[in-house]
Amino acid sequence: MLNADGNIIAWPAPAMALYGHDATAVLDRHVRMLFADDEGEADSDSLPGDFFAEPREESVEFERWHRRADGSVFWGTLTLSPLRNGEFHGYAAISRDTTTAKEYERMLERQNDRLKEFTDILAHDLRNPLNVIEGSLTLYEEAGDEEHLERVGETTNRMARLVDDLLRVARQGNVVSDPEPTDVGEVVEAAWRSLGGKSGAALTYEPVPSVSSDPDRLRELFENLFLLGAF
Questions:
Q1: Which of 85, 100, 158, 185 has its CA 20 to 30 A from that of 125?
Q2: 46 in Cβ contact with 62 (< 8 Å)
Q3: For residue 82, how many other CB atoms are within 10 A of its CB?
Q4: What is the pTM of this model?
Q5: Sequence spans of domains, the chain
Q6: Which of 63, 89, 70, 64 lies closest to 22, judged by CA?
Q7: Is the pLDDT of residue 198 over 60?
Q8: Higher pLDDT, 34 or 136
Q9: Whose CA is closest to 88, among 188, 189, 4, 179?
């Protein structure tokens, strides 16, 4: 319990169990001593300095970090409810350790951030193959050359592999688990062809030894580099 000024006037066993302080350490001290981010300041985001200037009519909740006697902290909800019996006598203060709920909330936020990142990557990396398909179909309609349809088939197969790869990255992270020897020249040329040479730029390639990689992801890397550098 708190008096009208916010000083602790009763410290029962549940409070001692939660914070680790015995009654002699907290009685007559301001309730702000319980917050980890206040350091005893008279005005703070956790508990405004004018909160106790006038008696409150309704209960108020504060969610902040609290500090125990041993220095450890927990995320807690402090509810202050005015006590009246004809006259105003102070506040009943109820603290609850809500660290688990806070950690779950943060986990959901991280998952949402990862989901947004994944959808952004998916939208970005599928845009170019879709452009290739659209361009190939246009060329087929104009010329009737079935070579353009073959290119559509190759691109859709690559899109399927790309989606599978992105889903694997979303589940397992960015590590390539099954690399294989890869001819960099073939990957570079395939990436260049997939862009259709829209910029009129020319590709010059100096041969290098093969590398250990995921060919689809390496091709995706070169496509993004070409888009940034030439288009």
A1: 185
A2: yes
A3: 16
A4: 0.49
A5: 13-97, 114-175, 178-231
A6: 70
A7: no
A8: 34
A9: 4
Residue 103: its pLDDT value, please?
86
Q: Quickly count: other Cβ atoms within 10 Å of residue 30's Cβ.
A: 17
By C-alpha distance, which of 14, 18, 46 is closest to 30?
Answer: 46
DSSP the chain: -B-TTSBB----HHHHHHH---HHHHTTSBGGGGBTTTTT-SS-SSS-TTTTTS--SS-EEEEEEEE-TTS-EEEEEEEEEEEEESEEEEEEEEEEE-HHHHHHHHHHHHHHHHHHHHHHHHHHHHHHHHHHHHHHHHHHHHH--THHHHHHHHHHHHHHHHHHHHHHHHHH-S--SS-EEE-HHHHHHHHHHHHTTTT-----------EEE-HHHHHHHHHHHHHHHH-
Query: Does the pLDDT of residue 47 top 90, yes or no?
Result: no
Backbone angles phi, psi at 77, to 5 degrees: -110, 120
Q: How many CA atoms lie within 13 A of 13 on its CB side?
A: 0
Residue 221's Cβ-side half-sphere holds a number of Cα atoms within 13 Å equal to: 9
Q: How confident is the model at residue 157 (pLDDT cuts 50, 70, 90)?
A: confident
CATH class of 13-97: alpha beta
